[in-house]
Write a structure and sequence with these properties.
Helices cover 82% and strands 0% of the residues. By secondary structure, the protein is mostly helical.
């Protein structure tokens, strides 16, 4: 029990500290919104793509063996999506809230929080397997988000938003980095020259710490504590229902310990930061989206630690 708790503490604690540092720096006036915007762009356009690319090409992971994990990810995502859609149809009255609720339930923060926890838990293997999972599921997340937000938003043209999301998928730096890495790996090419590799590693090293600091800096305690009934319902779906479903699917598909752990942290992580941006752009209830994001970011981290501790005790991860 003590060993399992220690394991969970070690994989989540660094994330909480970095987020806490970002929260403190923002409130103390040491960083501002301009810094957060600029740093987030550096992470998204350079740091994370380098991290994903080099973790894949340097990894010894057999990606063909990760098919059960991808299947598990698709099953979990579709069950959460359609379950939330059915719930919203009967229990969410305002049309601007329906898509926001659904996205808050099924869409998790894979690129920053989940990938960081997977790395803390399993090292390079966790990063590589998590990167592959994230690359494929990110495409699915974007498609499902456009579908639900377009159908429930009053000010959205479905066709134009669909074209827009397709463009974003093909120009997304993270997806480009992952596809390039998989092609590089399949072609069995040697590692790039040392100067290029070293530069890539330096950029990779700043990605997750800087991303977590920025995530912490954007937290709003007032929004987190002022949850409405619908915000709380979506948050329960994200931090309780989603992790339990991931455990059930992982057991049914008999995933290996690393696959099980990666599936759990990817599904159990807080609501995605991108969910708020997409809601804002598509005319949904952005206040509801912000509340879900703030609450799940803090409480979801604790839930991930507790869940990983129990899975460790049960020898599933």
């Amino acid at each position: 029990m003590l060993q399992a708790a220690s394991f969970a503490f070690m994989i989540v604690f660094p994330n909480l500290v970095l987020m806490g540092l970002g929260f403190y720096m923002k409130r103390a006036g040491k960083i501002d919104g301009d810094f957060i915007d600029a740093a987030s762009k550096i992470v998204f356009n350079f740091g994370l793509p380098c991290l994903l690319f080099f973790s894949v090409i340097k990894s010894e992971v057999n990606y063909a063996e990760q098919l059960p994990l991808i299947i598990a990810g698709f099953i979990t995502t579709f069950v959460l999506f359609f379950g939330a859609e059915i719930y919203a149809k009967f229990f969410v009255s305002d049309v601007r809230d329906k898509g926001v609720f659904v996205q808050g339930v099924f869409r998790s923060n894979m690129a920053i929080i989940a990938l960081s926890v997977a790395t803390n838990a399993y090292g390079v293997v966790g990063t590589s397997v998590g990167a592959m999972y994230m690359g494929i599921l990110t495409i699915l997340y974007n498609i499902l988000s456009v579908i639900t937000l377009s159908r429930t938003s009053q000010n959205t043209n479905f066709k134009s938003q669909s074209i827009n999301v397709i463009k974003k998928i093909f120009t997304n730096p993270l997806i480009i980095a992952l596809v390039s890495a998989f092609v590089y790996k399949i072609a069995n090419l040697p590692l790039p020259p040392t100067p290029i590799t070293k530069t890539g590693e330096l950029l990779s090293n700043i990605a997750l710490p800087l991303a977590l600091i920025c995530a912490g800096a954007t937290l709003e305690i007032k929004s987190m504590l002022g949850l409405s009934g619908l915000s709380m319902q979506a948050s329960i779906g994200r931090i309780i229902i989603a992790p339990l479903l991931a455990v059930l699917v992982g057991i049914l598909l008999k995933l290996s310990p690393v696959q099980f752990g990666v599936l759990f942290v990817m599904v159990a992580s807080p609501a995605a930061a991108a969910s708020y941006v997409m809601v804002k752009a598509m005319g949904g209830n952005d206040v509801l989206a912000a509340n879900i994001l703030a609450f799940t970011t803090v409480v979801g981290m604790i839930g991930m630690a507790v869940g990983m501790a129990w899975l460790r005790i049960l020898a599933l991860v």
